[in-house]
Amino acid sequence: MLPEMNLEGRTAIVTGAGRGIGREIALVLAEAGADIVVAARTEEEIEATAAEVKALGRQAIAVPTDVSKSSQVDSLVETALDHFDSIEILVNNAGQLLRIPTVPLPDQVLGPPKFTRKTDSRTTDEEWRSIMEANLDGVFYCCRAIAPHMIDRRYGKVINIGSNNAMQAFPWVTAYNASKAAVNMLTRVLALEWAPYNVLVNAIGPGDYNTRMTESTWIDPDGRKRHLDGIPLRREGTLRELGVLAAYLASPASDYMTGQIIYMDGGLTAK
Questions:
Q1: Residues acting as catalytic residues
Q2: Residue 9, class by beta-carbon neighbours within 10 Å (0-12 exposed, 13-18 middle, 19+ buried)?
Q3: Fewest CB within 10 A of the end CB: N or C in the chain?
Q4: Which domains does the chain have, with CATH numbers?
Q5: Three-state DSSP class for 124?
């Protein structure tokens, strides 16, 4: 291992770590030497991830958390600090996806994506707010909760998981795209605010990855072909690739990088 990539002696909070991207990031950070606070809403899933981290020889605790609730986020950070004394890394991965037109679209064939629900009514206030609360408010709450600790110690790495949807417009994902674009700007603003304290804030923008959240658009051969035809590298990304990038951003190797959004998308955002 390159010494600059070694995370021994560091502890990371990873949200949305029960499955998919968050789980993989948690495991790769553990491989690099970090202890992990595994957070998500489903206790069974985060307990499983914590067990995998421990099997890699690292310490782990599972803390059930709904990041859209600021009180639960504050409790998550308090629990993490009570157990580990210090937190050097925060990975904001928790999020939700809603695939639905903003309003019904007469005389338009809506496809090929599989929609979250029937498309005969407009996006409701509750649906809009649920996406914003999970994807944007949750990132803000987690950053706000951990920042005083990191600022006091004059060290911290914050990694926000965004999306290529933050800069590429797609139909039927209005709330999701808007929330991820906001995460990009939040990343840049916090990077400027916290740079004097050596608290570095960056983001990863994944492209097309087949996870439980997106599998409905990958599940049939035609859907899979559409995904792959749109990716310049003509292949699906692997979650481990995202995990390794997160490990880089969490490590001393990236100590001169802040306020950046890195798209790992097989070339999607280069088009």
A1: 176
A2: exposed
A3: C
A4: 3-264 (3.40.50.720)
A5: coil
